[in-house]
Specification:
Elements lengths: L5 H8 L3 H12 L12 H20 L1 H5 L8 H26 L5 H9 L17 H21 L5 H29 L3 H20 L11 H6 L7 H18 L10 E3 L4 E3 L5 H8 L6 H14 L1 H13 L5
Helix pairs in contact: 1-2, 3-5, 5-8, 7-8, 7-9, 7-11
This protein binds Phenylacetyl coenzyme A.
The site of Phenylacetyl coenzyme A has 28 residues, from α3, α7 and α10.
């Protein structure tokens, strides 16, 4: 449907054809769509879905790394990790604000997360088993997130695009600190080399899944690309990531857990074996190694924060000019 002409799409979506044509012309001119502007209901729905899921991912994403703050091997590493986890909380806040500009309330979004209606990134349902997982998350997971978010920084919706600019700057620092750790441990003692190899072996495939299903199995890509929310597809971004990471990890002496990995001279791409899509769908449907634990942690944080929300509401009411 999203390959069809504007008249046809307007009929399918029950939108005014002229308004839809004007909206699409603005996007084609590279203009940003702002909160008060006319937009199709489906554009609003897709953005709320994607931005709120993105916000949830940032917040749930604090958990795997947060678990290691008290176990960092030295003060420098602890300070870096603290700052990184705190940045992720900030990213969650910018993103919830961006979704609020579309009419979603914070309560609705949190309710959707806590009742399991909204998704968050599959990657955060895997455990962090040893300290080198922290460097691996930085280089691989933040690295993958940056590729996707650099694209989103150019998206057609103004508030999302602007939030992404700042988030990408911070994620770049996250990626660099992770890369520095992986390189250092890959040149370290036999134990450190074994630990970093183990971490990369565990995180490699789940990181590739972060980009989402193959394009042919991605129901949302058509509309997202038509309206300039995504400008690259899941498979294109995943391939860029593979092409960047494979030579760099191999240069560290790290083996990737893919017997089918090979360089294709003709396309200039590193080709991988088949991703375990059954695992991917299981994880996003709630049956990954850490789903239950992550949701329990978020529910507990929400319950523990009740007194703060109540205090803020009471303060706001007391100081309201209407009182
Ligand atoms: N996990 O039709 P598509 C980070 C769902 S931030 C879970 O291809 P779409 C920072 C998808 O929602 C990481 N679900 O979907 C950090 C859809 O289901 P729905 C998060 C996934 O939207 C680092 C269904 O599958 N980044 O890591 C996943 O076109 C370190 C069909 O898929 C963002 O959220 C997945 N991996 O493309 C924090 C960026 N993939 O909703 C802490 C914004 C797909 O229809 C530490 N989002 N699904 O029920 C996006 O760019 C897109 O939404 C994609 C998916 C690319 C994730």
């Amino acid at each position: 449907m999203y390959g069809a002409d504007v008249e046809q799409v307007a009929i399918e979506l029950n939108e005014d054809p002229q308004k839809l044509a004007d909206f699409e012309a603005r996007i084609a001119r590279g203009e940003k769509i702002e909160p008060g502007d006319w937009m199709p209901a489906e554009y609003r729905r897709q953005l709320i879905r994607m931005i709120s899921q993105h916000a949830h991912s940032e917040v749930v994403g604090m958990l795997p790394e947060g678990a290691w703050i008290t176990r960092a091997p030295n003060l420098r590493r602890k300070l870096i990790l603290l700052a990184k986890v705190q940045d992720e909380a900030g990213h969650g806040q910018y993103l919830y604000h961006a979704a609020e500009t579309l009419g979603a309330t914070r309560e609705e979004m949190l309710d959707a997360l806590l009742t399991g209606k909204a998704k968050y990134s599959s990657i955060f349902n895997y455990p962090t088993l040893n300290w080198t997982d922290i460097g691996t998350i930085g280089w691989l997971v933040d690295g993958a997130a940056i590729l996707n978010q650099t694209m989103l920084a150019r998206c057609s919706y103004g508030p999302y695009s602007r939030a992404m600019v700042r988030i990408c700057m911070e994620e770049n620092f996250h990626k660099k600190q992770g890369q520095e750790m992986v390189i250092r441990y890959s040149q370290g003692s036999a134990r450190q080399r074994q630990m970093i190899q183990d971490a990369i072996t565990r995180w490699w495939w789940p990181t590739l899944m972060m980009f989402g299903p193959h394009d042919a199995d991605s129901p949302n890509s058509g509309v997202l690309i038509r309206w300039g929310i995504k400008t690259r597809t899941n498979d294109e971004l995943r391939q860029d990531f593979i092409n960047q990471l494979v030579p760099d990890l191999q240069a560290c002496g790290i083996q990737l857990p893919d017997p089918d990995l090979r360089y294709d001279e003709q396309s200039g791409n590193w080709q991988i074996g088949e991703i375990d899509w059954d695992e991917f769908w299981r994880v996003i449907k709630g049956d990954g190694p850490m789903n239950a634990e992550r949701m329990a942690a978020r529910r507990k944080a929400h319950d523990d924060g009740l007194w703060v929300r109540e205090a803020l509401s009471a303060y706001a009411e007391k100081h309201s000019p209407l009182n």
